[in-house]
Amino acid sequence: MMTELLERPDEPTLFSTHLPGRDGEAPGATKPPQTRRNLSTLHRDDVIRLLGALAAGICTAAWLFTQVMPLRGAVGFVAISFVLFLLFYVVLVAMDDGGPAMKDKVASVFAHAIAMLLFAALACVIIFTFARAFDALVNLNFWTTDLSAAGPIDPLDKGGILHAMVGTLIQITIALAISIPLGVLTAVFLSEVPGPFARLVRTVVEAMTALPSIVAGLFIYATWIVTFGMGQSGFAASLAITIMMLPIIIRAADVVLRLVPGNLKEAALAMGASQWRTVWHVVLPTTRSGLTTAIILGTARGIGETSPVLLTAGYTTYMNHNPFEGPMVSLPLATFNLVRSPEPNQVARGFGAAAVLMLLVLILFVVARVIGGRGPGQLSPRQAARRQRQSRSDVIRFAAREGHVLLDPRAHSSTRRRR
Amino acid sequence: MPTEVIEHRAAASATPRRLTTVRGQQDILFRAAARSGGLTVLTIMTLVGVFLFVRGFDAITDAGTAFITTEAWSPNEGNFGIAAVLFGTVTIATIAIVLAVPLSIGTALYISEFAPRGLKRSLITIVDLMAAVPSVVYGLWGFLWLTDAILPIAEWISTHFGWIPIFDVDGFEPGDPLSTTTVFTASAFIAGIVVGLMVTPIASSIMREAFSQAPVGEREGALALGATRWGMVTAVVLPFGRGGIIGGTMLGLGRALGETIAVYLVISPVFVIQPNILQTGTNSISSLVALRFNEASEFELSALMAAGLALFLMTLVINFGASMVIARSRSGAESEG
Prior knowledge:
The structure holds two protein chains of two kinds. Chain A contains 17 helices and no strands. Chain A has helices at residues 2-7, 44-68, 74-96, 99-137, 141-144, 162-192, 196-208, 213-227, 234-258, 262-270, 275-286, 288-304, 307-312, 331-338, 344-372, 381-401, 409-418. Chain B has helices spanning 2-14, 25-63, 66-69, 83-114, 117-131, 135-161, 188-212, 216-224, 229-240, 242-258, 261-266, 285-292, 298-328, and strands at 73-74, 79-80. In chain B, helix 2 (25-63) crosses helix 13 (298-328), helix 6 (135-161) packs across helix 7 and helix 10 runs antiparallel to helix 13 (298-328). At the A-B interface, helix 3, helix 4, helix 6, helix 7 and helix 8 of A face helix 2, helix 4, helix 5, helix 6 and helix 7 of B. Chain B: It is a multi-pass membrane protein.
């Protein structure tokens, strides 16, 4: 009997209980044939409903605009068709589904629509700027000359904004040269040397992220320029930008540094590394991508900020390479000054400067992705070589300290090749 | 015998072991360098704050309570106050936030929950890029494109909802064919829309960060119990990301209050409290500073400092509120790997 049961466990026997299978059915019971459910999120009905509602919304809006109400304006048309589309869609969905399914579909279309609205609005901002800038940007002299030789009514094939590009680059370089070392060092201090003093610094830094940029400019204007009598210069603008960027970089870097897994740091310390070595070889490489993002976010704010520069840099149409002497214009400031002119050519130049500024920000982002986009542990060939050199010198150092014979370098290189 | 051993151990453990950390020279240097970095930043930041307070207080003590209640701005005659500019600042920021909150929540939800997986990374990059578009570009767009595009809408709102006091516009008669739409240009409404669009990407990227940290286990739990995607979002993602929503909103509000150039380009400055948001003329503290710093006397500069101080204190309170809310929420509580 026992052997029989063991051999044929599926067969129901008389006077015996049996456990249900995994699907809750008694083994051996006949199951209805299963049909595969479609779990993909896009159904044919959804698409038809969506397109139908869209068409109905646009048509009703067109009818309202042309026949019923004397309305005008493209933005109004889009807004009304959007609202009508949502209404039609809700009605259409309600015809098929009810309860949670309907809520889900309506919410989903809302989220899609809002995101699309935002992306459309932002695309509008950018396309508008580039369209207005096109006339200025296509002239080569716009990229290679300054504005000193071109008056407001001169055509666009005279004068350019090279001086503003150079000014922007000089100012942001000085600002970064101060704020990157100071910012990262302070962020490391906040996360690695905790204590009451670090808490105080963190509180003050968090408070200063609230400092409106114009107030940072006003501070430099009132001290450096009015009190010390230094005159408006590129360096003053850099200082104002630094004051604005520093808290942003420190705060973002601090958040990133605090996210370093504790067990990584503990592993390094347990291996006998000093705190400095832990920070340099574990914490900073782990957070490299995050730190790059923090610096880039700060730079992007700093490079595009007009108000502190407006108060501190001064406006000029001449090329000025010296940040310590004389006014030095930057791209946002040039934009700001040029578009307020009544002459259409000056306005076009202003838009050109804005477009160049956006391109600069874009290039910055791409560079940052290339430099900082790699995750921790992924090394470029040069970094890998450097790491190996370091590791080899460590081996020799350890061996020397413990009084061992130096390893045969050939043996060492063969182990490397095997890896 | 065993009891004796235990007593012995208890006696030993009564005096706690002294733990001393002996740091190497490298570490002492490193810690000193880090501390001095912190000290430098602290000094700079405190200097800015203290200077602002000291210079601003000159003007505030001179004007007394009139500083809060006066609408006019002529410091050289001793008649100045921030009532009008403060009201304008708050109006513009409120309009901006009313627009930005639904936009940013919707976008954050879309990116973290609804967007196709392949598109997600590029959408995140686009939103980050949008946050980096210079404010002068938004200002230009608002001043030269949006003003024309939005006039019919402002007119429509004023025609049909003019009975609500804030939508009323002086000098505009809906039935009058000769009435012009120029009374709708350069209003707080337009400035608010521009600033709202400007702060949306930042607010949205903070919210998305919080949403995407909602624990996978709880999401899957909700789905496994039969929740629809929206059910899962309302039951798990939104409660989890509440801190992020409030934090992003507050941060956006802080940016909106301090925005200078976009507002400066759009508005035409007036020094009266302007409750009709659709009507031409409003003002904000930061655009007041940008407008007046150049020909300011020593005393007016200190009055501008005082106005800047008021703005700084306002954003400070909002920022601290935001960081307290973010610190209390569950998001970001998983730093141990």
